[in-house]
Automatic annotation (TrEMBL):
Domain AAA+ ATPase: 162-346
Species annotation: Allosphingosinicella deserti
Pfam families: ATP-synt_ab, T3SS_ATPase_C
Keyword Transport: yes
Enzyme class: translocase
Segments traversing the membrane: none
Entry protein name: Flagellum-specific ATP synthase
SUPFAM superfamilies xref list: P-loop containing nucleoside triphosphate hydrolases
Length: 443
């Protein structure tokens, strides 16, 4: 070979990455039942990527999710393909990490990082583990700084902090996505990462058009996987969105992470777990589905080393308006606060339909001054007095003058509901929210 040709060949091969210093393990497809695949001769660790060559010569992506004896269990990432017995199974090195970088800002991607917005390819400069990096709990900073959400009821009564994890819990059609859109528009954040997991395809385009204004869109990354995609893709989408948020936090930025919805992520893990033979527990959820929630939520928070933070909002669907659902319980136990939306309040035309009595911010006492806390407690006291005696009041069985607190709660009920009410496109700053609360209920 001439020196010039050798130099040219070396230049071309310089960009080739074999990934390993040994021959690749090529397996064969031994079983396929529509959701789970079994491969022989493919001894790869759990979480590794794979490509299965279909009968028509194309390849479909899959991920190793377990093993049974000498057989490796894989789950497809591309839905159903024309798989045949003995099909070739090849390793795919792109499964364990995700592409991150500033090029993601303003883009909409799927669970595999492919662009959905038609704006061309994304040149990701760096890689980040999709499952995150194990950290020291002592590196997690305390929540001491308030976070302006732009929603008066949340700012004043359920004050959020930088690095807090909040669950928005409600049944279907009560306004979770609308409230999330209000929070995006009003949030003070350097980067916004949105994970739209398991929702209707129409809602994805609607969210981008109505709930992500241009100023927020330019600093946002949206990871979208509709409900008709494979369960593993829905799960990877939530993990990818969290990994992207972790990367920006590592750069010292203030990140707002929104996952809509955490329940759909748990449903995806339920499908995977049951396919692997896990025993179903409460409402058919296997242990892995309930264990997934703390693993995902605990990745958010503030980092004392870099000064960056991830303030996370997770919507949780209460199936059948059951706030004791296992997923609701698991989420409520691990987050730093929860906002419960009430169907009865929504039916009165009051949005956001926040049930003040059952909602809570566990960091509010550490980040608000005493006069703010006292005014919020006064409003909550009146709310509780009315709710505890609602049946008596509505039936006319309560005699005015019996209890001064209940009397005040009845008189001021319209004022309280008016304080909660806010238009979908309206942003109310933190200072204005607190001033209104203290003026009406302070002292």
């Amino acid at each position: 070979m001439s020196p010039g040709l050798a130099d040219r060949a070396a230049a071309l091969l310089a960009y080739v990455d074999a990934g390993e210093d040994r021959p690749r393990q090529i397996g064969r497809l031994a079983a396929f039942d529509g959701l789970m695949m079994e491969a022989t001769g493919f001894a790869r660790p759990v979480g590794s990527g794979a490509r299965v060559i279909t009968a028509d010569g194309h390849s479909t992506r899959a991920e190793v999710v377990g093993f049974r004896g000498a057989k490796t269990l894989l789950m497809s990432l591309d839905g159903h393909g024309a798989h045949a017995n003995g099909a070739r199974v090849e390793p795919d090195a792109s499964g364990g990490c995700v592409g991150v970088g500033l090029a993601l800002l303003g883009r909409v991607i799927d669970a595999m990082g492919e662009p959905l917005d038609g704006l061309g390819t994304i040149a990701s400069a760096e890689r980040w583990p999709i499952a995150g990096r194990q950290g020291n709990p002592l590196d997690r900073a305390r929540v001491t700084e308030r976070f302006d959400i732009g929603v008066r009821a949340v700012n004043a009564l359920l004050t959020a902090g930088v690095g807090q994890r909040v669950a928005i819990i409600a049944g279907s059609g009560v306004g979770k996505s609308v409230l999330m859109g209000q929070m995006i528009a009003g949030a003070e954040a350097d980067v916004i990462v949105v994970g739209l997991i398991g929702e209707r395809s129409r809602e994805v385009s609607d969210f981008l058009a109505t709930k992500l204004p241009p100023p927020a869109r330019r600093k946002s990354v949206v990871v979208a996987v509709p409900a008709d995609h494979a369960p593993l893709l829905r799960l990877r989408a939530a993990m990818r969105a969290t990994a992207i948020a972790e990367y920006f936090r590592s750069k010292g930025l203030r990140v707002l992470l929104l996952i809509d919805s955490l329940t759909r992520v748990a449903h995806a893990q339920r499908e995977i777990g049951l396919s692997l033979g896990e025993p179903p527990t409460v409402k058919g959820y296997p242990p892995s589905a309930l264990g997934l929630i703390p693993r995902l939520v605990e990745r958010a928070g503030a980092d004392s080393r870099t000064g960056g933070s991830i303030t996370a909002l997770y919507t949780v669907l209460a199936d059948g308006d059951d706030n004791d659902d296992p997923i609701v319980d698991a989420a409520r136990a691990i987050v730093d606060g929860h906002i419960i939306l009430s169907r009865s309040i929504a039916e009165q035309g009051i949005y956001p339909a926040i049930d003040v009595g059952r909602s809570l911010s566990r960091v509010m006492a550490d980040i608000v001054p005493p006069d703010h806390a006292a005014a919020a407690m006064a409003l909550r006291r009146l709310w509780a007095a009315f709710e505890e005696n609602r049946d008596l009041i509505l039936m006319g069985a309560y005699a005015p003058g019996t209890d001064p607190v209940i009397d005040e709660a009845i008189v001021r009920r319209p004022e309280i509901l008016g304080f909660l009410r806010q238009g979908a496109g309206e942003r109310i700053e933190f200072a204005s929210s607190v001033d209104t609360l203290i003026e009406a209920f302070g002292g």
